[in-house]
C-alpha cells in the first residue's frame, strides 16, 4: 500500500468544509447551506447559539458563536478548539489530520462545487396598533411610548420571509404572533425585527445599522455603547446627563473603524456597557483591545434592562452613576 502521508503541503489543498465537518462531527455535508448548533465552546449552552455559514466574500465557510463570542474561519475554529497559540500550529494539525483521514478512508482529495443557497429575507410586513400586552411588556422595563417613538419601535401585525430555492421556486413564510416589534430608522427603513417571547430566535437582522445613531445630537461630552436598543432606551430613562448612547447590531458586532473614528472626534470619552456575563465581557474586551475603550458592567442582572425590571430605576441609576463617574475621571 502506498502511503499518502506528507503529500499535502499547503492548507489550500485541504477542503475547508471538511474541517468543520470533521472537528464538529457534523451529521451532514456542507454544500453551501448554513448550520445552527449548540456551542462547542460553552457546555452550558441549551439553545443553539453557534452558526456555521458560507461566506460569499471569501468563498469559505466561517463560524460565529454568540455564546462564547468566538468567531472566524476554519483555522481559527481549530486554533480555539485545541487552545493552540498560533494559526500556524492549527494549520499543521489540520494538514496532519486531513492526511490521515483521506488515507484511512481511501478518499480522493477533490474540491466540492458549492451551490449557493439563498437565505430567507424579510420581504413584507405590516405595522399594527399598540395594545395592553405591548404596554405591559415595555413598561416593565420603564420604557414608555415617548421613548419607543423616539427610536422608531413599532408593533408588527405580521411579517413575511422569502427565499428562492435551488429549483427556482420561491418559498415564503408568513409570521403572525403577539410581541413582535419592528425597529426602524428615521427614514422609515426596517432594520431589525425583535421577538422577545421567541426564545429560539429573538432577532431577525434586516440591514446593518448602528442603533441609536440617527438620534445622536453630538451635544454631549460622553458616549456609551450598550448591548442592545432596549438597553439603550433604558439607559436614557435613567436620566444621566451629558451622555448619549448607541448600540451595535449585537455585542459580537464591532462598530466599524470609520464610525468609531467619527465618534472619538465628537466625544471626550466613550465607554462600553455590555451584558454581565462571559459573552458580554469577551465582547467588551474586544472593544478595549481594538479601540482602547474602557468598559463597565452592572453586577445585578444579565443586562441593564433586566436590572431595571428587577431592581428599579432608582437603584440602578445610583449604582451606574457612581461607576460611570469613576471611569470618566480616568
Separate helix tally: 10
**Oligomer category:** single chain
Under the CATH scheme, which architecture of the largest domain would be assigned?
3-Layer(aba) Sandwich
What Rg do the Cα atoms give?
A: 23 Å
Work out the count of structural domains. Answer: 3
The succession of helices and strands, N to C, reads HEEEEHHEHHEEEEEEHEHEHEHH
CATH fold-level name of the largest domain: Dna Topoisomerase Vi A Subunit, Chain: A, domain 2
Which strand-content bin applies to the residues? 15-25%
What is the 3D shape?
A: globular
Mean pLDDT: 87
Helical content (DSSP H or I, runs of 4+): 25-40%
Query: Got a strand count?
Result: 14
CATH class division of the largest domain: Alpha Beta
Gap from first CA to last CA: 68 Å
Structural class from helices and strands?
Answer: alpha+beta
Q: Give the biggest beta sheet.
A: 6 strands, antiparallel
- Unreliable sequence segments: 1-6, 110-114
What does this structure look like?
There is one protein chain. The chain is an alpha+beta fold. The protein has three domains: 94 residues, DNA Primase, Chain A (Alpha-Beta Complex); 91 residues, no CATH class; 121 residues, Dna Topoisomerase Vi A Subunit, Chain: A, domain 2, CATH 3.40.1360. 32% of the residues lie in helices and 22% in strands. Strands 5, 6, 7, 8, 9 and 10 form a six-stranded antiparallel β-sheet that branches. Strand 6 and strand 7 form a beta hairpin. Helix 1 packs parallel to helix 2 and helix 9 packs across helix 10. The relative contact order is 0.09. The N terminus is likely disordered.
